[in-house]
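S.,

Sequence below, as promised.
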Amino acid sequence: MNHIIEPGDWIGAVAAAHGLPHWRLIWDHPANAELRELRGSPDLLMVGDAVHVPDVGQESGVVVRTGRRVELRLRAPDRLRIRWGALGLFLRAFGPVPYELKVGGETFTGTLESPDDEITAPIPSDATSAIVTLMGTETFDLPIGGLGPVTEGKGAYARLVNLGFSERDVPPHDGEQVTDPLAAALRVFQAEHDLPATGELDESTSTKLRDAYGG
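The prediction came back faster than expected:
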């Protein structure tokens, strides 16, 4: 059967909803070969994508003959990874930043101490959002899934927002204030990465944004 991706979907939640133990049983299925080539990553599915979902039991389970020795390897759980843009400036101003992450009914705590630090935690298949609180006061509700490709406006803007570029001051373009949110965020991002600040989502900007975001 096919599952049509809806807002907020991610492939782990799709697998859980159909009783499959892991999302790779969907993503690696031969029927999804064209989708894998189109999107490149299960994290970049878009609303409206049709994903083939195999029947429960068709692709899972292991049969071992008695008297035989077999080595089984457990698959590591999926993990949520959160990175913060301009963290170095914040750390220099305020010092180490304590955080609390709530996802899938679990709470994780820690401290960000260097610009390269990330918040990571196991993510259950049915999780659709995570809540992060910094320094006990600043709370962010982060949706899981629906990021979209970096080469398309929605996916690019989601990455720019997550990296903090939608909140930077945007200089006027040709004497006029830039009002389009995507173009404004792109201009700031381009200026900070030594690219022509056109506000256009061209190939060089998409590539640089993918590198900066990590995917």
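The radius of gyration is 20 Å.

Coffee later?
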